[in-house]
Give the backbone structure.
Amino acid sequence: MSELLKALADHLRTQPGARVRVVTSDAARDEDVAMLAGSEPSRQDHDLEGRKIDAVPVGGPSLGAFRAFLDGMQRPRGPIYIDSPVPITYGYVAAAIRTRGEDRRMCTLSGAWEYREALYLSRSVCDYYDDSRAVVAGLTGAGLRVEDTDRGAVAIEHPLALAQAARDAISTARGAIEESLIARWVAESHGDGWLLVDGSLPDRYAASYMVGVTKSHGTQYFPWEDQQKLLALEVGERSGVFIPIIKGRKRPVYSWYLRLHPNDGRDVYFGLVRVEVARNPEMLDMADDVSRWLLAERSPLSLPDSRWDKMIYPIRDCEQYLKSRAPSHAMLDAMLLRLTSASRMTGSRGTGRLRKWT
């Protein structure tokens, strides 16, 4: 159940004649679909600090010090149109840290799960329409959480651009929750085991006893010649260590590529992950150790997930836990459709359709 959508339906019942339309046939209905701008192919840079990128055998898998695992999720739905042509996107985000005990069982400690839901829209575009400004005022006045997708920038007045801006803002909200949990873990863990993060490490929380594992490879840090060396890595081999450079700025992490599973007869990225650790000499010396720990995490396989070749099982466990706590797509769609019913109940003028704007 979404408390926000329930509150939105209650609010619409107080708005006589409100015209509401919702869109539930979004092709990108699953949160795993790569629609975010950050997943688009891009070229960045690197700093090898005098090292080589050539393959390094790390040795056999060995049980490591990973005790906690972080993952996040997001579910954007909509858009919703209320008395204006400005799209409003519903977004649910959540994150959790699951810990693994000596008996290998996974659990979630108190306070290690957070979620947030909000309505995302462009305030600068809303300012063009009197009806939109009134809608925003009504939503905020009713205590509903409304997030501005502009974030200080001028919105591109195109429906697809507005939809993408909403999804980007939802992704940012997910990252904020993840950083909140990481900060709590850093403050409370006292070095009791290592935290493995699904994805890149947040720059301001990149610290010792923390490892990030990125499954996607939309961002390339090396020219074509060096990319061939990375893609040719065998199982149990890692690349040389480098510093990722994003938009001319060195990130506070060391990174390397690691092949977890053989890719014979498969895509060149099959079983290939990129690892991040804090940028300090101690962590630099542990590249082989961390790689062996990750190799040991390959069992059990994360089946039936299609990303099993890059996803270690504790991260899949986190993902399944988050999905079990989140409102399902079917439930969200049903609640969205009820919004039109709520608007029709307020008066004969409410048809559940948008009027034309000029």
Summary: Residues 32-40, 346-358 have pLDDT under 50 and may be disordered.
